[in-house]
Structure formats: C-alpha cells, structure tokens
Amino acid sequence: xxxxxxxASFLARDEQAIKQTEMKYGAFCRSLAFNFLRxxxxxxxxxxxxxxxxxxxxxxxxxxxxxxxxxxIVRDKAxxxxxxxxxxxxxxxxxxxxxxxxxxxPSASGVEDAxxxxxxxxxxxxxxxxxxxxxxxxxxxxxxSGESVSELAxxxxxxxxxxxxxxxxxxxxxxxxxxxxxxxx
Amino acid sequence: xxxxxxxxxxxxxxxxxxxxxAGEYRFEKRKRRLSWVGVAAAACLALGLGAFGVSRxxxxxxAPYEAHLPTEAPSVVxxxxxxxxxxxxxxxxxxxxxxTDKTNFENESxxxxxxxxxxxxxSRTIEPPENTGNCLFAVTIGLFHTNDDVWHELNVEYHxxxxxxxxxxxSDRYSAWERENYMxxxxxxxxxxxxxxxxxxxxxxxxxxxxxxxxxxxxxxxLKEQVDAEEYARCIAAQERMKAxxxxxxxxxxxxxxxxxxxxxxxxxxLAALGFDVQIEDxxxxxxxTADQILNFPCTEEYGYQIIWIGNESVMDE
Lengths: 185, 318
Hints:
The complex is a heterodimer of chains A (185) and B (318). Chain A contains 9 helices and no strands. Chain A has 185 residues and is mostly helical. In chain A, helix 1 (3-11) crosses helix 2, helix 2 (16-37) packs across helix 3 and helix 8 (149-156) packs across helix 9. Chain A starts with a helix and ends in a 5-residue tail after the last helix. Chain B has helices spanning 3-12, 16-24, 36-46, 54-58, 120-126, 148-162, 165-182, 187-193, 198-201, 210-226, 229-250, 254-273, 291-295, and strands at 96-97, 116-118, 136-144, 277-281, 284-289, 304-309. Chain B is elongated. In chain B, a hairpin with a 2-residue loop joins strand 4 and strand 5. Chain B folds into 2 domains: 9-135 and 290-309, no CATH class; 151-252, no CATH class. The chains are: A mainly alpha (185), B alpha/beta (318). The interface between A and B is large, with 77 and 63 residues.
C-alpha cells in the first residue's frame, strides 16, 4: 500500500492504517529503535508505541513522508526509554551517540538567549545541504538513524578508527558552522 | 534537557528529503589492505608457532578477523572475555570465544516469527567449518514478537476506552476545565502553581507523572460538584480503565514484560532440554553455542530470533 493511501486510512480513522503501517514499516521502526537501545525487548515495545502514536497524531498531522515521520517518533520514544535505562544504570547505544554530539555544540559566548530546537534544525539542514553527498549521508546515517561506526565503516570498506576520525571532523565542522551563525545552546 | 539532548532533538527534525537522500545513498566501498599484524599472525598460525595463543589473538583488533581463529583447538584454555563481561569466565577445558572488536551488526531487518538473524561477523566466523573446531561462541539470544498478543489485546482495550461515552464525558470536561484554569499559563507556571519545579512536575519516565496526578486530582474535586454521584462514578471508572491501559502501554508495561519473560523462560527450558548450554543472566538469555548449533538453530514459529556475539553489543556498563 502506498504511503498516501496509508495516511488516508489514518485520516479516515480506519484501523487498517495501523496494520498496513506495521507491515510496511514495522521492521524499520524496530531496527531504528534497536540502533539506539540495543535491546530486543525495548525495540519491540517502542515499535508498538510508534503505531499508537501515529494513530493519535494523524490527524491532525498529515505527514508527506510517512517513513521519516515514523522515524522521528521512534527517536523521541527511544530517548525517553534511554532516560529510563540510564536511571536503572543500564547503558545503550544512545550514550555513545549523545557523547559524540558534544563535539557539535558551539561554545557559548555572550549572553544571547539559547536557540530554539526548530531554529537549530534549520541551521543543521543548511549545513547538511552544503556538504558533499557522502558526508551528508554519513552524518545522517550515524546521528539520525543511529547506525554504528563499525557498520558504516564496513560499508565504506575503511577501518572503524578512520571513520571515527572522519565523523569527528564532521562534528567539528558543524560546531564551527553553528558558531559562525551565532548559535547558543 | 541538556545540550546534547537538545542537539539530538534538533537532528530529529532534519528535513525529509535529506533523510531520504541519505537512506538511498550507496557508499562506494574502498578496497582494504591487509595489515602487517594480520599477515604475521596468520603466518604464525600456519607454521604452528604456539606463541600466538588465542587470548593474544583476541586482543589484536587491528588484525583481520580470520587471524583470530584457531586452526585447531589449543590444549589450554586461553580465551578471555573482552571488556565488560567478567561474568562469563570460561570453564576449564572449554574454549569460549567472544567478539574481538566492536563490530556491530547490520540490523536493517528484524526477524519475523520463525526467522533468525545472526550478527554478520559471527555468521562469517562460523561458516567455514575449519575455523571453529570445538569452540563455543558466547552469544545473547534475543526474542521478537513475544508481545504480539498482548499488543493486540491492548489495542482492543484502548479502542474500547477511547470510544466509551463516559470516558469522552470525563475527557471533554477535563479539557474544558484545563482551558479555563490554565490556558494562559506556561508549563513552568503551572508547575509553580503546584509548588513544584517543572522537572518535578513532569517527572517522566514515571507514568503517570506527578503533574498529571495533581491536576487530575484537582479536576475530580471540581467534577464532583458539577455532576450527580452516578455520573461522577461512571466518569471516574472510565478514566481509571483508560489509565490502566495507558500504564500498560507507556508505564509499567507489566503484561508486556511478563509476556517477554515467559517467552524467554520457556525458550531457556526448551533449549536446555535440547542440550544447549544456556542460562539467564540479568534477565538476558545467554548461550554458549557451537557453530553447528548456531547454523542449525531450532527456531519455533512463535518468535523471531536474534543471536548476537557477546562483545558486539554497544551496551556499556556504567
């Protein structure tokens, strides 16, 4: 079933929408959640949560890209679950990923108000569009999809350490870009 | 929300076309060169030079994985768990291999019921028969689709709650009361109204949150004065049913966890009865399996199976 038809089912409050979404994107949602949490049980629960969240949010939302819409819900729910796991002293792929994002954070200067997430997103989009396609794809696959460094290195055919260095350089570039834009977090 | 989480949230909002483009992008694979360490290690093995014990090979991650494999079972147990798995110390006369580097698995496909996924580097390791000898591979055995029935039941229950006229009555009245009393207040101001900071008020991941309980308690005091006793009782009962369903979905997940644990325990019993060396550690089903047992893993039609070589997970112990 095409995405537009699935979204139309949601809008019509037809419960077939949930079934079709699960068939088409269930594996994607589970995979994405697993990238962050590395626990089968949690990945499965989050994938189920995402279906409910989609049902509750469409309408009023009418996503033009259902896959990325679901992916964003997965990311939000995975972050909540990470916080739970952190409270229970259990780690996840999240810790590594969040700590890497340290390198992107611009140094604070002056007393400007912290930028809102929407505006920060706008800058990140602008920065990504300025990159060579491979660099942009690498950044998105690592920091949006949560794919591991080793997995990406394997696909590129380079040692993981070399890719880590490349990702580090990308994060530094983002930091410099945001600082030039006067971004404060 | 700290700065890292703020950055994470901002990344979540990356535009659709950028994400889609990244998803479709196919990397051009560079050709790898063998490292001198890997070549030397392989040469030593081929010549039968015993100086390279298994433990030494396990701790040379720069070498290609083939160099880590014994061509025959050594007479002395030398394998050691890497990093953070001291609980899985090998027994005497058993050779247990753990993943060497931190290569993670490609998990773009989560197994359907009746299917199995084995982490790729483990698959590559066990396929050539001459590479495995009598070794045991320390693995976690993950189960999928353990909650399908529970989830289906919850969907039905949720739908019943959300279409219950008494719940709709409660919900509509609550929304009106909230708008009337708090519409112009920010979340922080509402929290302060109750004498709390915002994090204390919206203390997720608790479900329900402290703020939710306080506001609903206030509302129900108000509601009692607005409707007769019978309508009040019906509304409260409907709300309690909805809370119970939402708690199962978002909060304690008691039934889902029970379903997963029951499946895990049943699989433990089944695999043990089949002669597999399995145990449950910290809630996780662990196995010390031979290559043959992994290659011919006895899947059932009930669950999807995921076998991960211990040492590959990026779960970090704090």
